[in-house]
Amino acid sequence: MKGSSIFIFLAIVLTVFSLLNYYIIRRGWQALAGTGGFRTIVLVVYGALTICFFAGRALSRGRPGKFAESLSVVGSFYMGILIYLFLLLVFVDGLRLIDKAVPFFPAVLRQHGRQAGRAAFFAVTGITLALTIGGFIQMRYFRVKTMDIVVGKRAGGIETLNLVLLGDIHVGPFMHNPRLEKIVQTINSLKPDLVLIPGDIVNEETLPSELEKMTASFRKIRSRYGIFASTGNHEYFAGIEKSLAYLKKSGFIVLQDEAVCVANSLTIVGRINPSYIGHTERRKPLKEILSGVDLNLPVILLDHQPVHLEESQMAGVDLQLSGHTHGGAIFPITIINNRLYEIGQGYGRKGNTQYYVTSGVGIWEPPARIGTTAEIVLMRVKFRP
Question: Which end of the chain is more exposed for a tag (fewer CB within 10 A), N or C?
Fold first, then answer.
């Protein structure tokens, strides 16, 4: 992004963020009228959550450590609370507006408006906390999704391939080493011929000690033809040079606008994430990356963001693997996700090109899944004999 674009983007985000918080605080203040000091305590707690969100990120970049990580964790939970408080308050206010036009509330609610407001406050708060906690519990589990893919090309002497796809691992506050070890054990149990990871492997808040543990865990992965990865936006947030160093130390072959032939049988391509390369850099056109590549062999593309899918189709890619979206992670963002992307999650096809967008095995923030499931994908790929 150019400097002016980043400034405009941040200004819009901060404006929306401020308006959301103003609306929530104002409605909470009104609902708790007459509760004395309790209203002030609620306001202070909410304000502290907001501060944790910003302080955690600032400290993670300036002075990373357990304290900064703890603030980031609290701030991440706050994001889930913010989203659901806002949505539920809008729902309640929508009912109030409808009731003004076409009265349907019981008379007792109008007679005891202040008490009804307090009851609504506690109901909204309770539902929000229940959703946030439930979503966090759901986030910690992942499934293995198995699917068959047929590619209509010969792949040298390879007729079938066990391909394991996992994306958006986000090693950091919500993906510590014990959970990562379980993921590695699951991968090895699938006996992969090839492991492919389309970006967002690390997080910007990840402590150096966790990165060292990460490399030790990843090096336990056993894959016949290796582990290939592309970069996502969070590798840039964390510092691209540092990220690349740790990923290579983990035994990954990181492809950045590069193509590699595997076992003289198929080509793996990895693209640079488009949004965060420097001003003097450019993302190579896919056809340029594939110049000199034997397109008679299968071509598998790793591209973090599932955008401009037609480029893969026109370039002769057989299978594109992406992530980034988390499937929307939580309802109702899941609905928005499916409107923003041509393929927001799961399998799709355009002509001879097949696509799979994984919901990811990890999460960023808020640390919750509601309406989606973390996944590792086992693709049993069959080539033309």
Answer: C
